[in-house]
Amino acid sequence: KQVWRPDVQTDKAIEYIRTHKDKPFCLFMSWNPPHDPYIAPDQYMNMFPPDKMELRPNTSEKELVRIELERHPIPASNQEAVRKRQEWRKRIDSDDGIRRNMQGYYAATHGLDVCMGRIMKALDEAGIADDTILVFTSDHGDMLGSHRMSHKQEPFEESICIPFILRYPRLVPRGKTTDALFSPMDVMPTILSLAGLPIPNGVQGVSCAEAALGRRHDQHEALLIMKMLPGGNPWIINAATEWRGVRTKTHTYARLADGGPWILYNNVDDPYQMRNLVNDPAYKALRDELEETMQTLLKEAGDPFDTEKIRREISEKSKTMLRREKVRARRNANT
């Protein structure tokens, strides 16, 4: 019998719900799929034959990644990364390779849907569903071959557009949707607000509870999006380097740290982001406006958009935290 980690994690969550149903609780789960390596139990994989997978139209757009791969070759001395890029490029440059990834991704997503259904059933059986705030979300999407890229940390919709599904029968209307812009930083203040709890001072996110209730949808005019540091699979596979950008309700704009303005899309007229307007003179005013918005958000976030400065800051903070941990460990050893 195949043992799938999300099934085991869900078993644990259901057990927790049953033993804590008589008092308030906060339960946070983090399933790993549908991450690479894009696999799931056979019963789910068999539901999505690769030859039935329909590619997104923007898999035909290959120029953006071609340019970045040419600009950022992997040093020959890093043979492991060279090998990995070659293997992944062979897969992502092939329609069949993309379909195989999609099969695993869709299968794992369906499997998580089953797990989520089990949790909802457990809440119903415990008699606490109406008074429980239930959220399903993710930390990132996956390119899955769009623009012939894979994985995350790209400014395109497939990567940055993530689900946020909230159920709270006692307060939130059923079946409502919103076009409100929503950031992961907004999750905590939104849930606190819906629960009637105060939001601590210093929290960077904002409550979007009013959007959930169908009252207001203007909490953000634009959200800051970013890849702060190079490295990892996105760099190996897509040659993804540091960038910053903004997502508004209608447009996406991003600038490369080492290449200037990179992309500009009208997501309403061009939902698959096939027409890059960044160098079109007719859209220069819009590009400049979005650049100004991005710079304002960078300043508010305290982001210098300087890779080496960020590296140094991370290094210094890591050393400080390590020193504190050593002091704490010595104190514990002496008590």
Please name the CATH topology. Answer: Alkaline Phosphatase, subunit A
Output the radius of gyration.
22 Å
For the biggest sheet, the summary is: 4 strands, antiparallel
Number of strands: 6
- Rounded to the nearest angstrom, the distance between the terminal CA atoms is 48 Å
Form type: globular
- DSSP strand content: 5-15%
CATH homology superfamily: Alkaline Phosphatase, subunit A
Sequence of strands across the biggest β-sheet: 3-4-5-6
* CATH architectural designation: 3-Layer(aba) Sandwich
Report the structural category: alpha+beta
List low-confidence stretches: none
Overall number of domains: 1
Can you give the mean pLDDT?
A: 95
Overview of the molecule:
This protein has a single domain, classed as Alkaline Phosphatase, subunit A. It contains eleven helices and six strands. The chain has helices spanning 5-20, 42-45, 63-71, 79-92, 95-126, 157-160, 187-194, 209-212, 232-238, 284-301, 307-333; strands at 134-137, 164-167, 222-227, 243-248, 251-256, 260-266. It has a four-stranded antiparallel beta sheet, covered by helices on one side. A two-stranded antiparallel ribbon has the order 1-2. Strand 4 (243-248) and strand 5 (251-256) form a beta hairpin. Helix 1 runs parallel beside helix 5. It is globular and about 60 Å long.
